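Here is the promised in-class demo. Please do not try to memorize the tokens; focus on the logic of going from shape to residues.
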């Protein structure tokens, strides 16, 4: 067993033995290391205090600067919001004003339909004139011109209405852009005001690492300002255009009303003159008719007198011819051409000549009577034509035109 014990003794070696200098050196080394580590720790603590103080100041300064810039931004947003808001009020007022003018044009178009219909109806009625009275007179010319003026006025008003509605659309577009800009700025004001109000002890604070950075879709302050300025300039442009459009519409409405009123007056004057002219012609025709009727009566009396005169010659002629016949029976030498015979022959010739003369006058009187009767029919027909014309111009057209009202909308 002895060799076995010796082998085990070799496996378990005794701890090393150090010298005293080694021990002293080791202790000093530990002292130095500890001193170095402690010095480093002191320096680190001092550096940490310095960095803590610097970062605290830096953070406070940064937060103060952010607060200042946020307040400045709030002032900028508020300034531009007020500018846009002021322009919005102007555009909104102009929209209401232009809308009122559009309503006036609509009413004018609706109102002027009736005068046009009346003018056209008068032209239709005047086609009912008869004979020579179916003339292209001043009334006809003025009525045709009135239809033309009214149709031209309505065409102008329709074109103006389209332009005004287009301007109203542009006004509303500008208003929409301003309202959108104001809504965005109010939202930005609320958000930035909330940011300004946030403090270290505010509720709801939390880390948002993903929010750190600049959005690639964001715009520069210059671009932001340019957008609002562009909206303001566009709104002002449309406001001025709208004001100009209102002025144009007002002028057109007044001009159209003046033109229609002027033409209405021309037609009414022409109708009045034509009615007076027709009435005067009818009165003269009636006067001539009365004279012709009187002449017809006189001629009928004259014919009766001539017929009576001719009839009265019948008996004297019979007596004279009978006497001649009886005396023609005288015998032989008694068949004498005595004064009595000559006077009987002369008497018969005279009576026959008288009857011939009376018969010629009778024929002429009968022809004259026929002529007078024809003139009577012509005059009566012409008077009826004039009465028909007067009814059309004075009653039908005059009644219709009495209801025409030209308003300045």
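The designed amino acids, position by position:
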């Amino acid at each position: 067993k002895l060799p076995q014990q010796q082998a085990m003794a070799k496996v378990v070696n005794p701890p090393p033995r150090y010298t005293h200098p080694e021990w002293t050196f080791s202790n000093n080394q530990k002292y130095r290391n500890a001193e170095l580590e402690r010095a480093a720790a002191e320096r680190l603590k001092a550096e940490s205090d310095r960095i803590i103080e610097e970062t605290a100041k830096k953070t406070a300064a940064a937060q103060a600067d952010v607060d200042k810039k946020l307040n400045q931004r709030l002032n900028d947003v508020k300034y531009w919001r007020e500018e846009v808001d002021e322009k919005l009020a102007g555009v909104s007022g102009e929209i209401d004003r232009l809308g009122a003018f559009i309503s006036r044009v609509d009413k004018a178009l609706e109102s002027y339909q009736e005068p046009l219909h009346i003018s056209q109806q008068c032209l239709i009625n005047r086609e009912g004139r008869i004979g020579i009275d179916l003339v292209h007179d001043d009334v006809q010319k003025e009525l045709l011109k009135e239809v033309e003026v009214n149709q031209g006025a309505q065409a102008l008003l329709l074109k103006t209405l389209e332009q005004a509605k287009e301007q109203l659309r542009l006004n509303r577009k500008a208003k929409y852009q301003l309202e959108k800009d104001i809504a965005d700025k109010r939202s930005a004001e609320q958000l930035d005001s909330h940011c300004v109000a946030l403090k270290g002890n505010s509720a709801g604070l939390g880390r948002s690492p993903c929010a750190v950075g600049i959005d690639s879709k964001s715009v520069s302050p210059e671009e932001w300002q340019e957008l609002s300025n562009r909206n303001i300039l566009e709104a002002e442009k449309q406001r001025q255009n709208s004001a100009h459009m209102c002025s144009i519409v007002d002028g057109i409405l007044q001009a159209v009303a003046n033109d229609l009123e002027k033409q209405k007056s021309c037609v009414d004057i022409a109708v009045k003159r034509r009615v007076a002219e027709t009435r005067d012609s009818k009165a003269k025709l009636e006067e001539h008719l009365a004279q012709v009727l009187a002449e017809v009566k006189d001629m009928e009396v004259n014919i009766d007198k001539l017929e009576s005169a001719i009839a009265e010659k019948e008996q004297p002629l019979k007596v004279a011819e009978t006497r001649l016949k009886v005396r023609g029976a005288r015998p032989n030498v008694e068949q004498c051409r005595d004064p009595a015979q000559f006077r009987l022959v002369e008497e018969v010739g005279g009576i026959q000549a008288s009857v011939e003369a009376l018969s010629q006058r009778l024929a002429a009187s009968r022809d004259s009577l026929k002529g007078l009767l024809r003139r009577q029919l012509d005059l009566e027909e012409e008077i009826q034509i004039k009465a028909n014309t007067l009814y059309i111009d004075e009653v039908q057209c005059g009644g219709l035109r009495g209801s025409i009202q030209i308003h300045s909308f």
